[in-house]
Write a structure and sequence with these properties.
six-stranded antiparallel beta sheet, 6 strands, about 250 residues
Amino acid sequence: MNGLMLHCGSKYVGREEIAMVPTPGGTASWHPVPHYDIITMVSKAVESRGWTIANEQYGLGRDGAKLFGVMRLGNSNHPEWSRAIGLRNSHDMTIAVGLAAGLNCVVCDNLCFGASTVITRRHTSGIDLTGLISGALDTLVEEFITLELEADNLKLYDVTHDAARIATVRAAEAGAIPSCDIIEVLNEFEHPRHEEFAAPSRWSFLNAFTEVSKKYSPARADVCQRKLTRLFGLDGQPSILWDGQAIDA
């Protein structure tokens, strides 16, 4: 399983190494949360609900200042994907503590995440982070269900070559991918490396984007995934790519 993609100086690490990362001293208004504490609190909240963590991956960036992780859950009965939780944290004030629901595709191990991060807790004092995480997991359940329903719906619609070209440009204009990746996405859609995505459906089209996004840094991939979720309507709202204009077959 390789759901977390890292480069640009980031590196894969285990819990033991994360536990060794020093947490910088805070200020009167800023109280950084240790990376290891975030992972521990999420794990306990997951297990308290009877869920299992089938696999977990973590990465550190900026000399340990940023943490990115994916927990793949073992409780999904869907043959094509498993539920996953994305988490992030920082010690340099750049990002808040965050959790998001995701689907981890079994075939290609691509990830798509929900439209919203359900915790955006800045590192300030006086907030019960354990309680926030517990409540966030309840919200994640709803996001899992929405993602799964909308992902199944994507398989019902075909996408023509011309429609794919228009939609890929729209995705680039929306900032989901850089314009230099338009051709790469189209090539992946028309010649997928996994035969399970040979049918030219919206689901296969989404996979083309997520396959290309594997080369992105964790922060860039995070932006890509969330924009794709909105563009494809994986958040349960009307899709931006398929907005009623006649671009489908």
